[in-house]
Design a protein that fits this description.
The structure is a homodimer. Chain A is an alpha/beta fold. The first copy, chain A, has 13 helices and 14 strands. The model of chain A has no long low-confidence stretch (mean pLDDT about 95). The complex binds nicotinamide-adenine-dinucleotide (NAD) (2 copies). One nicotinamide-adenine-dinucleotide (NAD) binds near residues 79 and 104 of chain B. Chains A, B: InterPro entries: Epimerase_deHydtase, NAD(P)-bd_dom_sf, UDP_G4E.
Chain lengths: ~375, ~375
């Protein structure tokens, strides 16, 4: 008989990152997954495919029970409305309860956040407060939170350690920063109950190697790799604008820390495993980048610790897709910093996290997803 | 005929500060008041008394219409529930609409905020986001916000200018800091619509000279003056503990900037008048203590700019009440800073704000309120 899985609620599991996290949770053999998603930026199809990939990975002769444990229970709902979260926890009270939460759902477009800040604060802050309140009500005290390297703003040093000052420069970044502060205050208020880990993502890219799940941006992709992948299937024929090639970097273009989405997602399974380990919280005030405290709160960078320039990425995607990119150097974009890379030492030491997949795998998997699903999920269901 | 008053929604007008703000709005002749309060920390009686004081101040022979304009329409409701705010704006659509909002309601106990942070974030942040969302929906873009000197934490210089870094040291302080950031982001998103002024209060004390309204704390008062006033009517016979007399201050005890509540409240009428004046926003990024921006957002200190030590306050209350206080020097309290005083220059220059009432008036009015209402509002209704 299969060992019983713990139930984890993943908010926003239908999204790009959430779907890969859900998959890794299922593949670990330790967790079953329930989610709440309003499909604001995703499709239910993603959840079905996650289950399918996980079931296909079962050993031959797996029982129906084993297969069933890989189904994702999905609530269509909005986490900025408290009662819609409450319903889930209530339903699960009778089923052994929810063990922990991975809070992934959020709005995430930096530019848009400055235009419609109220919507961003509602989806990213009110929602986080709602979630904490419901967790508290049902005595669920284990939390992993999707934070972002944007909390660092333009950091004084690179690679960036977790102790770097938090000075986000966009409204989106502030929603992530405030969520961390709120979660930390909650942990400080009851160190005997709450445990939380924030994971500060650098640049997630790529897809599961099956090519069945991946990033499916609406409109023009905001991130480089999906944009390059879509160009290779004929979209955006005008080519790639490169914002500045006169930065103080090896080839003059901006350098970022791209991390394979499967590495990133696996980091969440490691974080779930680390939550109960008291020793990681010892020095956390320092590491979290804001005042020390008595609570069990900790923040970790998830990055590869290696910088890739825009030109490196174009080259690598050219190899993966065979497509010859048209590029054009244009002026620097205000707000861009030359280099943003993670110091991944803390996550490596305490979570045993290592981003092992390389740039080639990232581009191959990105291209595999793109070429299998040239129109994303929408027309594939 | 009386000139038509603009309708101002004051959240939490039944509370200590809100009731005095409501009174000053009414006395100004320019505003009528509607409020929403859940009476978590206040009594409806306060609102009736505000109206009574304002009506008593009308010239002889004032019309019934003039008197009626001084009634405060009160919604019993909770601003952390969006629909309860929405209802008010909806009702007023037919009555010429709401012109602006003074957002006063909040939980405010520093110590408690660290114990029940979720409640503080819900009442002070979710509520602020709700309010902004409803204002936006009904196109009400004028806002004055009750901030606090706690946003400065332990400041690098004293008196504290508005440009001092914001580094709150309590969960309560973070709710005020975050509310300011959120309001500022909203102003930045639409400079042609939104205008907001945050008022950072130092230590409000005293009461309206009528002795009809004042601070009515539940349990042991957290602030010095109400505590001294209650001691003078026989409560807390154990006397006053003074936390440290070896600070680097004139008499060794901590120095704070006490401001008469009527001065503070009048500052809000000045802020309402300043909102439409474009020129005050010119240099506001700087003055707000966090990055510059294009929006019409501004923060002002409301303080007297003069420090009073604990011993100064004990002396002054002794004179006002005739009560001989028993004091005891005990050790310093962690977290206390020796001196916190406002640099009031900016509010003086741009709002024409001046805290003109002196310590003697403050203590006299505090004592007048206390001796008229030894049990506060509860047993007086
Ligand atoms: N993609 C990145 O580059 C990146 C980098 C750093 C951090 N993050 C963070 O990772 C998380 C996931 O990002 P992603 O790239 O997968 O985005 P995504 O848009 O693909 O996924 C977010 C999911 O949450 C859902 N959602 C949003 N608001 C919701 C609400 N109010 N109620 C219910 N569901 C809601 C969306 O429908 C979507 O399925 C976010 O918190 C984001 O801020 C992303
Ligand atoms: N008193 C001080 O020393 C001081 C100093 C700096 C800033 N402030 C700020 O000034 C404001 C008013 O403080 P106060 O001293 O008058 O406090 P108070 O408790 O006397 O008044 C607050 C009022 O808001 C109401 N309220 C609270 N939460 C509510 C909710 N969710 N929905 C509806 N009503 C709600 C309360 O019932 C009360 O009537 C607060 O924002 C506080 O943070 C106070």
């Amino acid at each position: 008989m299969a060992s019983p899985r713990k139930t984890v609620l993943i908010t926003g599991a239908a999204g790009y990152i959430g779907s890969h996290i859900a998959l890794c949770c299922l593949l670990s053999g330790k967790y079953s997954v329930v989610t709440i998603d309003n499909f604001h930026n995703s499709f239910p199809t993603a959840l079905e495919r996650v289950t399918k990939i996980a079931q296909d990975a079962l050993p031959a002769g797996a029982s129906d029970e084993d297969k069933k444990a890989l189904e994702i229970k999905c609530y269509r709902g909005d986490i900025s409305i408290k009662s819609e979260i409450d319903q889930i926890f209530k339903d699960y009270e009778g089923k052994g309860g929810i063990w922990g939460v991975i809070h992934v759902a959020a709005l995430k477009a930096v530019g848009e956040s400055g235009e419609i800040p109220i919507k961003y604060y509602e989806n990213n802050i009110t929602a986080t407060i709602n979630l904490l309140d419901v967790m508290d009500k049902y005595k669920v005290y284990n939390l992993v939170y999707s934070s972002s390297a944007t909390v660092y703003g333009a950091p004084p040093q690179c690679p960036i350690p977790e102790s770097s000052p938090l000075q986000p420069e966009s409204c989106y970044g502030r929603t992530k920063f405030m969520s961390e502060l709120i979660i930390k205050d909650v942990c400080d208020s009851a160190p005997d109950k709450w445990r939380a880990i924030s994971l500060r993502y650098f640049n997630p890219a790529g897809a599961h190697p099956s090519g069945q799940i991946g990033e499916d941006p609406r409109g023009r992709p905001g991130n480089l790799l999906p944009l390059l992948a879509q160009m290779a299937v004929g979209k955006f024929p005008e080519g790639l604008k490169i914002f500045g090639n006169d930065y103080d970097t090896p080839d003059g273009t901006c350098v970022r820390d791209y991390i394979h989405i499967m590495d990133l997602a696996e980091g969440h399974v490691l974080a779930l495993a680390a939550l109960p380990r008291d020793e990681i919280y010892a020095a956390q005030g320092q590491a979290a980048g804001f005042g020390s405290s008595g609570g069990k709160y900790k923040a970790y960078n998830l990055g590869k610790g290696k910088g890739m320039s825009v030109l490196n990425m174009v080259d690598a995607m050219q190899k993966a897709s065979g497509f010859k990119y048209k590029t054009e150097i244009v002026g620097r974009r205000t707000g861009d910093v030359p280099e943003l890379t993670a110091d991944p030492a803390l996550a490596e030491k305490e979570l045993e996290f290592k981003a092992k997949r390389d740039l080639e795998a990232m581009c191959r998997d990105q291209w595999n997803w793109q070429s299998n699903n040239p129109k994303g999920y929408e027309n594939q269901a």
